[in-house]
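Exercise 7. Predict the joint structure of the components listed below.
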Amino acid sequence: MARYEAMTTIEKTTDEVLQLASTHFKVPREQLRADDDFFKTLGINSLQALDLLTRLEQHFHIELPDYELQGVTDFRTLAERIQSRL
Amino acid sequence: MLDLRKFTSLGEALRAALDRWPDETCLIEADRDREKARFTYRQFRDTALPLGRALQDAGLRGGTRAAILMTNQSKWLISAYAIFFAGGVLVPLDYKLTPVEQIRLLGHSRAEFLIVEYHAWKAVTQAPNFQALTARVIVVTEAPPSADLLGAKRWEDFRAAGEPVFVERGLKDPACIVYSSGTAGRPKGCVLTHENYLEQCMAVAPIFPFSPGARYLSIIPTNHAIDFMGGFIMPFTGGGTVVHLRTLRPEFIREAFTRYKITYMAVVPLILTNLQRGLRERFAGLPPMKRRMLAILISINRAFTGGRPRLGLSRTLLKDVHQAFGGGLRALLVGGAFTEPATIRFFHDLGIPIYNGYGCTEACTAITLNDQKPFRPDTVGRPVRGMEIRTRNQDAEGIGEVIVRSKTVMSHYLDDPAMTAETIVDGWLITGDLGRIDTSGQLQLFGRKKNMIVTEEGKNIYPEDVESVFEGISAKEYCVFAANYLWPARTMVGEQLVMVLRPEAGEPVGEQIARSLAERNRKLLNYQRVSGYLIWDTDFPRTASLKIKRADLADEIRQLLSREAVVPL
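Solution:
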């Protein structure tokens, strides 16, 4: 808990993105890191990445247009895109 | 459908379409479950012409090049019509490329105008090569009121009073410059003429007839030749409706099918397999009794539709499945890359006709189309009307390189007479694909002769285009190949790129190299990446000008190493 409180906002968002990706794609959380290429780590294609975007929208109660995924391959940048819309 | 033989340009044909069906709906734009815009042909014309006038006032003349960089939406087609009306040459750019690549292609095309969506424009302005942007007039759609557009104009305000002057174009004049590859290497800008498009439309439209009320769901990027034809020229010249959906999320695609009663949709194999997976999951989730009943109905449908589709029967037998597709779907067109016969069979068994085809941008989209007469999932069909097709240098099994000749074959590659001469020989387009034409005239594909891959998303990837991101790695020399070029395989599914690497003498290989390659790989879009590497320990053969002799190097590798030597990344 203390670790979580010490996190910055972007770190918290990144952590939640990683947790959600882990649950949705059934990949152990400890295997996922913020700078990982999610296409490779999760073994997903571009359509499945859009599915992840939908889950993230539901979790964060925001709307993420498809183009927000354009050129994004790592969890941290994805979290930054989310953060800018929170 | 209009009689396209009467027209000499896309602008002229589209103008006639707008006059022919003024009160029919030509465009619907939806974002998720919200409908954002709807246009009749008259409203489309009334929106496009003031834009055409403004483009002319800004200097767009007959032959001026104007690029569009947008996702699928109404402003794409409205802008394209305005450009054609004013006699411009359209340069449709792929919004999925990186901004750096987009700027490079814009430079190569020498487009003076750029019509671009705000988010894409923002990315372009932040690209390291932004200063190299050569377009003179930039028009940005949907920019927030407070946005600083760095001198670009707002699409919504960029209109001028007065009728623009319709500029006549001839059949042999260029209509579009479409890039089939070459984002970093040697750009392949296919110069397609008005005749190419009009002929292609006349060849394909009889198979997928449009009339008022027929609706096409547009999800393949409109810059892609398939959607440009299927999601613009064909429906418009038939009085149909194009439905744009500004998302590719499966849940909204499903909803659009039912809400808009879609008649046709074109997909790439990736989307088709995704749809297949979704349906399988749904079927698996049914209660056991219903699942058994569904299996029986599918068997009955298969028994009655083995040779050809019987849409009415299938819609009755498998009502729920067809209702999920809106109930009015006549065909799913699949192209852009090779589709597994098993996937085609899956949909056919459900009574959903899949028309798979084969083509390339250089031939203005379709070369062959499976017209379901009879149903043959193992082939890509027969040549479309007006297309001559042959195979050359056949092996003992009759497999050879596919070559085609027709009025749809592009004029040339922009500014590259040498590559044009290699690709169009005595009027025949050399496709680089390997196939066999069977006794019933159907084409079967068996791989490629050329060093490239096509992804499930329908993207052509050439090794030369990805090599530049590896510049500076710790190696004496390196070269990227399509794995199936090094070790020919009779398949066009799951194609991959491999890196051949010659380390510096004494340099460690192994994890360090893998890490360095993986790091560079990430700079590429996910579908462009190199999947593994090979260590090679002799000098690469080179020409007098020090270019790598790729074919010779491939021969040497093939003789000494097998596919198993590839270390996955």
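Discussion. The interface with chain B takes residues 37, 39, 45-48, 50-51, 53-54, 65-67, 70-71, 73-74 of chain A (CB under 8 Å).
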